[in-house]
Amino acid sequence: MTAAAWVCLLAPLAGALLVTLLGTRLSRDGAGYVATASVAVAFGAAVFSFFSLLGRDPEDRAARSDAWTWLSVGDLDVSLGILVDPLSVLMMLIVTGVGALIVAYSIGYMHGDDEERRFFAYMAFFVFSMLLLVESGNFLILLVGWGLVGLSSYLLIGFHHERPSAIAAAKKAFIMNAAGDAAMALALFLLIVNTGALDYGGVFGQVEQLASGEWVVNLVALGLLAGAVAKSAQIPLHTWLPDAMEGPTPVSALIHAATMVTAGVFLLVRCHPIFEAAPRIQDLAAGIGAVTLLVAGLIALVQTDIKRVIAYSTMSQIGYMFLGAGLGAYANGMFHLMTHAFFKALLFLAAGIVIHALLGEQDMRKMGGLRRLLPRTWLFFLIGGLALAGMPPLSGFFSKDSVLASALDAGTYGQILWVAGLIGALLTGIYTFRMIFMVFGGEPSAFVQEHLHKEGDAEGPFWMTSTVAVLALLAVVGGWIQIAGLWHPLASFLDPILAVEREHLALREPSGWEDLLTSVLAVGLGLVGIWLAWRIYGVRRTEAPAGAGLRRVLEQKFFFDEVYDAVFYRPAAGIARMWTRWIEAPLIGGSLRGLAAGTRDAGGRVTQVQTGFLRNYALAIAAGLAVLAVVFLSVRA
Q1: Are the C-beta atoms of residues 403 and 421 closer than 8 Å to each other?
Q2: Angle between helices 330-357 and 306-326 (to 10 degrees)
C-alpha cells in the first residue's frame, strides 16, 4: 500500500524531470504525452492504494512509510515520510484523477505553443507538489509541499512571461501565499516549542496538553488558518485568485478545481484535533467561509471575463467547504471538495474550448449565440452550470446541500451561516446563468461571426472534447456516491480519522426534515436565480439595473486591492525610495563610486611608470635587486 503511494508521489516528478532533461530531443507533443502518462500512472497507484485500504479493517486504515531521517536536532527527529490514510488517499484520487484529465486536455489546448515542453514540465511538477502536500507524514513535509505548490503556481500563472500582466499576477499570488506560509511556519515553531514534535501523531496526541495554555493552541490554530485562508483564496487573502486567470486555461482548471485552492480545506480537516481544541478559531474559519461565499458571489455578478466569473465561483464554493469544516462537518466539506473538482474543472475546460474557438477572446460581452455553433460545449457548460447551482440530480446538489443541512443542525451560529449559504445559492444561480446566457444565448455577435475558428472542428481536437466529456459525466453522477439518510460510503470511509470527540462539535447526522428543508430552499433559491438571469440576460440581454455606486463597488471588488495598495504597497515603496535616497545612494553608492575613482586614479599613476624605455626598466630592476640585497644582509646580521 505504501509502495503504491510512493509511486503515486514520484511518478509526476519523474515525468517533470524527464521532460526537462530530454529538452528538444523530446517533441512538443511528446512532452504532453510524457506528462499525461506520469499523472495517469499516479492515478493508477492512487486507485491501488484506495482498494488496499478498503481491504483493511476501519481502525487499521493508516500506514506510515519513512524514507530516512531528514532532520535531527536534539530530541526532534523529522523523517522524510508519507502517511497513507483515508483522507490522503481521497485527495490523491482527486488530484491525480482530475489532474490527469486536465493535463491530457492541455495536449490539444497548448498544441503549437513554442513553450509546450516547459508548460508540461511545470504541470507535472505542480501535481507532484500537491501530492507531497497531501501525502505528507508530518508538518515539516506538509510545509515543504505547501511551499512547492506556491512555487509551481507562480511558474504556471506567469507562464506567458512576455506579458507584464501575467508576471504581475504571478508575483501577487506568490507574495500573498508567502504571507500565509510565514504564519504556518510560526505555528510550527510553536508546536516544536510546546510539544517537541512535528509528526501528526506526536502533535495530536498532545493536543490536550497544548490546550492547557489556551493562548498557545489558539495561536497555533490561527497560524494554520492563515495558511489555509491564503492558499484557498478566502477573505482577506483572496485577491490573487482572479488575477491568476492570466495563466493558460488548463492552469486555471488545475489550480481552481482539484488542487491548490482546496489545500486549505484539506489542512483544516487534517488538523481538526488542533482546531477542535481552539473552538473560537474553528468558528472563525466557518465565518470566513460564509463571508467569502457571499462577497465572491456578489463580485461575480458584474464580471465580464468568462474565466474570472468561474474564478469567483471557486472562491464562493471553497467558502462552503470552509463553512462545513469550520462547523465540524468534515466529511460533508470533503464531499463538496470532491464534487466541486468535477464540475469546476468541467466549467474551466469548457470555457477553454470557447476561448480557443474565439482565438483567445475572454470578454463575454463580445460573445453570444454559441449554442448553435458549439453545441457540445453548450451541453457541457449547461451540465457544469446546473451542478454549480446545486440543481438535482447533479453532483453539486448532493454535496452543497449536505454542508448546509449540517449548518442548520449546528445551533444558532450554524443557522446564521445556513442563511448565508442559502443567499449564496441564489447568487450562484444568477451569476452562473448570466454567464451561460451571455455566452451561448441569443444570436451570434459580430465578433463571433468574424473570429470563430473555422478550420476543422471549432470545438477543438479529441484531447479537449473527450476529457471534458468525462468530466461532464462525473459532474452528473459524482454526487450519487453519498445520499443523505440512505447511503454514505464516503463518510464511513473517512470516519475513522475524522471522528469528532469534543461535545461542542458533536454534530449529529442531519435529520430528514433538515435535509428536506435545506434542499427545497436551496434548489428553490437557485431556480429563482436562474429565472432572474434568464429574464435579464436571456430575454432582454441587458445588464441588470443597479445603482452606479453599488455597481462601482462590485466592479472594484469591494476595493480590497485599493486598500492593500494604500496600506501596504505605497508605504513600502515610499520607505524604499527614502532608503535609496538617504542611505543607499550616499553610503553604498557613494562608497562604490569613491572606490572606483580611487582605482582609476591608481591605475593612471601606474601607467606613468610605463615609459617604454629599456633603460628605465633596467634601472628599476637594478634598484629592486639592491633593495632585496640590503634586506637580505640586514636579516642575516
Answers
A1: yes
A2: 180
Q: What is the pTM of this model?
A: 0.88
Task: Give the lowest-confidence range in 318-332, 376-390, 456-470.
Answer: 456-470
Query: At what angle are helices 116-135 and 2-22 packed, to 10 degrees?
Result: 160
CB within 8 A of 601, min separation 6: which ones?
none
Query: What is the Cα–Cα distance from 76 to 197, expressed in whole angstroms?
Result: 6
CA distance 292 to 280: 18
Alpha-carbon distances of 20 from 25, 27, 59, 150, 173, rounded to whole Å: 10, 12, 42, 20, 25
B/e letters for 484-520, b = 16+ CB within 10 Å, e = fewer, are: beeebebbebbbbbbebeeeebebebbeeebbebbbe
Task: Give the pLDDT confidence of 289-328 residue by residue, as tens digits.
Answer: 999 999 999 999 999 999 999 999 999 999 999 999 999 8
**β pairing state of 63-73 and 76-84:** antiparallel
The three three-digit cell numbers of residue 486, written as one number: 440512505
Q: Which residue has the cell 468558528?
A: 283
pLDDT digits (tens, 9 = 90+) for 490-532: 777 887 777 644 333 333 455 567 778 888 999 999 999 999 9
Tracing cell 448565508 back to the chain, one arrives at: 420
How far apart, in whole angstroms, are the C-alpha atoms of residue 122 and residue 124?
Answer: 6
Cβ neighbors of 408 (< 8 A, separation 6 or more) are 414, 415, 418, 510, 514, 517, 518
Phi-psi region of 320 (alpha: psi -120 to 50; beta: other; left: phi over 0): alpha
- What's the grid cell of residue 152? 509551481
CB-CB neighbours of 110 under 10 Å = 22
C-alpha closest to that of 510 among 299, 385, 335 = 335
C-alpha cell at 420: 448565508
Q: Do residues 289 and 333 make contact, with C-beta atoms less than 8 angstroms apart? A: no
pLDDT given at position 267: 94
Cell of residue 36, nine digits: 499525461
Cβ atoms within 10 A of the Cβ of 112, count?
8
**71: which strand partners?**
78
In the chain, pLDDT over 70 holds for what percent of residues? 94
Mean pLDDT of the chain: 86
Question: CB burial class (10 A; 0-12, 13-18, 19+) of residue 113?
Answer: middle
Residue type for 197, please? A
Per-residue CA distances from 626 to 371, 462, 497, 598, 622 (Å): 100, 89, 89, 31, 6
pLDDT at 637: 58
Cα separation, 534 vs 370, whole angstroms: 16
What radius of gyration do the chain's Cα atoms show?
29
